[in-house]
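User: I'm preparing a small set of examples for a lab meeting where we compare how different chains pack in three dimensions. I only have the primary sequence for this one, and I'd like the structure in token form so I can line it up with the others. Please keep the answer compact; I'll paste it straight into my notes.
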Amino acid sequence: MSARISSQSASPLKRRFLTALASVALVAAAGSAARAAENTGQIPVPPTAEGSSPTSEGDVLKVCASAKEAPYSLKDESGFENRIAEVLAATMGRKLEYEWIDRAAIYLVRDGLSKKTCDVVIGVDTGDERLATSRPYYRTAYAFVSRAEREFAGSRWQDVGGEGLSRFATRLYSPAETMLKYAGKYEDNLAYLYGLVNFKSRRNQYLDVPPDRLVQEVRDKNADLAIAFAPDVARYVKEAGGDLAITLITNDVERSDGETVELQYSQSVGVRKGDGALLGQIDDALAKAQGEIGAILDEEGIPTLPLEDQTN
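Assistant: Understood. Below is the structure token output for the 312-residue chain.
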């Protein structure tokens, strides 16, 4: 689930958290990626509870999970992060239990981890300063989704400026908006983008385009490209059975003010700060289960980057 605060961009969970702050107008300057348009402002982070809980010290792995955050987490446990949680609990020798939150994953820390009704969040940015984070277990990036017949060969964000590309399906407040602005294609794409959310105002509400809709827009030839965090869309690209292609974006956006919008992220498991014993067990388990976790990511169709390349 899925950026840094300040000048860095975010993971599935952190990006969604920051997107929500922007969309409900809690801050004047939006801060970070997949989860605000410019992805760099300073964002005040609500305080997060610290320390262990009775369950974190016991034989249960109590995971904070969204009941409706496809493809990451779903109540029927079909999300790929649900499967990772299963492997993690088994490797740790703990019983997996969920604290299901019937809201988007942006609320997991506030409504679960901070209330100590659960102890673990799967899929956060490595180094998310709200939390203590585990060793990274995979690294990936934003990506282009295109129709295979187009034979689109772009792998740099500047490639959105190519000829014949005019419609782009993106999530709201994501680095994709920054790419389109710098490529001179944002204004022309705005009416189409708002059409994806039925022209609802983004003010004072959390509003976004479901990732499967982004992929379908490309498949139906309503959009030339989709631009999204790869884990958001990989499942749906794979389900297209060869009709679509997904390509990781290999460079970052260097803004005119000197700030960098990073497009590659390492993913970790998050716990409350001060819950060091649990974090140590998780780190040990992740090392042992790396092969199984890699198989889940491969099955999901998520393209990954070498962990040794990480800078964030």
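A couple of notes for your slides: Residues 2-11, 16-43 have pLDDT under 50 and may be disordered. The first strand starts at residue 60 and ends at 66.

User: Perfect, thanks.
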